[in-house]
């Protein structure tokens, strides 16, 4: 048998030897749950899923083995909201370091946001990031293009050119498109493309949020920090739902954080409108009371909201109003993140802690089942991103082996210094959580084995 550490593990592909077998796990995918071993051919395709597989019968006598005792085997996680910072701010994160963090967190695919320097608003920059993902990524790195040139909200970006390179999501994330007429034009343009794409919106009316640094409420009053009202989010959610109804184009609403926004999406879905939504772990685990410390690690946009809003986000995840959990992984170096609260940038790390937070804060209290959590983190976001032909697939014969193996019961303490990201701005330092990734496989190759990145 080939030792699982041997061989030349490549970005897309193969390893010296004769494939892999994952033994002793509980398989959970969109088709249900069962106990099974999973055998993978050298070319990264699942060739058998059953208990007690005999490798000689499969022609895999020399296959490497991965232990899944006590673990769940699931389709790899998909994050549709990752900030990789490359190009332009590589001191905070790179495609390589961000994808390593993603793989350690159980992700086999991530969608990089376009608020880079330069902005991902052209075919040339799309190619640059995609090439970096192929060369150095430990997961499948996809790209979201900007809706407008340089994300300035004035002129539509060449979405057709970017779509031709495989871009399936467009967003000015970090900025909502403020001009109603321009957003309508963008949706009409997108719906006319030969390739189906989705426009994703950072829902924030800047005329209401300008000058704010946290949620407008009792804590902003107590602390004397200018606030951002919930209505800044809700008004744009309302507008984009109306524009989806008008144009028939698909709209994805990013990082919902308020009870009102969740209610609007729930109503839109009841009417059959083409609207999807995501929520982040920090918006279902933290409230604005955290800002009492004045620690900028808790500064994020949209801001941490009230306990009532947190409960509404959880309810939205439970009843299907919210389709996906997205990390909004936003690394910042210490020198800028540790500035005074009103000068510090918004953003938190998320890739390595999202699965554990979902298990600890949603599954264990009974808000969602483990299968429902995986739907929110794997096959449903893959569908939104337009990559469900490859990721989030059922664990069946003939499917690509993009897989995660994790122990849902393993307890660990979040330590910023041990995270793979180039930055360390996690709000969960010292928090005890449950659920740890043991193995992550991309195209049948272990990118993470026994909790360790393989490169």
Total domain count: 2
At the first level of CATH, the class of the largest domain is: Alpha Beta
The CATH superfamily of the largest domain is identified as Metal-dependent hydrolases
Number of helices: 15
Rg calc? 21 Å
Helix-strand category: alpha/beta
Q: Looking at the structure, what is the overall shape? A: globular
CATH architecture classification of the largest domain: Alpha-Beta Barrel
Average pLDDT, rounded to a whole number, is 95
> Number of DSSP strands?
19
Ends: how far apart?
A: 22 Å
- Main pleated-sheet profile: 9 strands, mixed
- Give the uncertain stretches in residue-range form: 1-17
CATH-assigned fold name of the largest domain? TIM Barrel
Helical content, roughly? Answer: 25-40%
Question: What percentage of amino acids are in beta strands?
Answer: 15-25%
Question: Describe it for me?
Answer:
This protein has 455 residues and is α/β, with parallel strands linked by helices. Helices cover 29% and strands 22% of the residues. It has helices spanning 55-58, 95-104, 123-136, 159-163, 180-191, 206-209, 218-223, 230-247, 259-270, 281-285, 307-319, 334-337, 354-363, 370-377, 379-384, and strands spanning 20-29, 32-40, 46-50, 64-67, 72-75, 77-82, 107-112, 140-145, 169-170, 198-201, 214-215, 227-228, 251-253, 275-279, 324-325, 403-413, 432-442, 445-449, 452-453. The strands form 3 sheets. Strands 1, 2, 3, 4, 5, 16, 17, 18 and 19 form a 9-stranded mixed beta sheet that branches. The longest helix has 18 residues, at 230-247. The radius of gyration is 21 Å and the shape is globular.
């Amino acid at each position: 048998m080939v030792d699982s550490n041997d061989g030349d593990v490549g970005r897309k592909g193969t390893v010296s030897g004769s494939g892999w077998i994952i033994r002793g796990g509980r398989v959970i995918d969109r088709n249900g749950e069962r106990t099974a071993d999973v055998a993978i051919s050298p070319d990264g395709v699942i060739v058998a899923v059953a208990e007690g597989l005999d490798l000689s019968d499969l022609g895999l006598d020399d296959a490497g083995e991965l232990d899944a005792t006590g673990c769940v085997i699931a389709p790899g996680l998909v994050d549709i909201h990752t900030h990789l910072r490359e190009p332009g701010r590589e001191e905070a994160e790179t495609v390589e370091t961000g994808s390593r963090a993603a793989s350690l967190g159980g992700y086999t695919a991530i969608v990089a946001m376009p608020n880079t320097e330069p902005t991902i608003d052209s075919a040339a920059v799309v190619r640059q990031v995609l090439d970096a993902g192929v060369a150095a990524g430990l997961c499948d790195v996809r790209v979201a293009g900007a809706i407008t040139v340089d994300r300035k909200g004035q002129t539509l970006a060449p979405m057709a050119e970017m779509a031709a390179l495989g871009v399936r999501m467009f967003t000015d994330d970090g900025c909502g498109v403020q001009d109603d007429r321009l957003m309508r034009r963008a949706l009409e343009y997108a719906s006319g493309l030969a390739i189906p794409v989705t426009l994703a919106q950072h829902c924030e009316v800047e005329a209401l949020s300008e000058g704010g640094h946290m949620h407008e409420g009792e804590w902003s009053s107590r602390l004397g920090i200018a606030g951002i009202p919930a209505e800044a989010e809700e008004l744009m959610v309302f507008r984009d739902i109306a524009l989806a109804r008008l144009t028939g184009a698909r709209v994805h609403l990013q990082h919902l954080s308020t009870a009102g926004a969740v209610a609007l999406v729930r109503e839109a879905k009841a009417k059959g409108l083409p609207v999807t939504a995501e929520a982040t772990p920090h918006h279902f685990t933290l409230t604005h009371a955290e800002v009492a410390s004045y620690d900028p690690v808790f500064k994020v946009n949209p801001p941490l909201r009230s306990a009532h809003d947190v409960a509404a986000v959880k309810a939205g995840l439970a009843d299907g109003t919210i389709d996906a959990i997205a990390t909004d992984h936003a690394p910042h170096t210490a020198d800028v993140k540790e500035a005074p609260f009103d000068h510090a940038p918004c953003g938190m790390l998320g890739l390595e802690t999202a699965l554990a937070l979902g298990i600890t804060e949603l599954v264990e209290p009974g808000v969602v089942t483990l299968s429902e959590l995986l739907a929110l983190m794997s096959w449903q976001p893959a569908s939104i991103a337009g990559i469900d032909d490859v990721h989030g697939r059922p664990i069946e014969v003939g499917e690509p082996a993009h897989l995660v193996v994790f122990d849902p019961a393993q307890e660990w303490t979040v330590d910023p210094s041990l995270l793979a990201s180039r930055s360390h701005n996690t709000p969960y330092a010292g928090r005890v959580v449950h659920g740890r990734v043991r193995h992550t496989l991309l195209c049948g190759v272990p990118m993470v084995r026994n909790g360790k990145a393989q490169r």
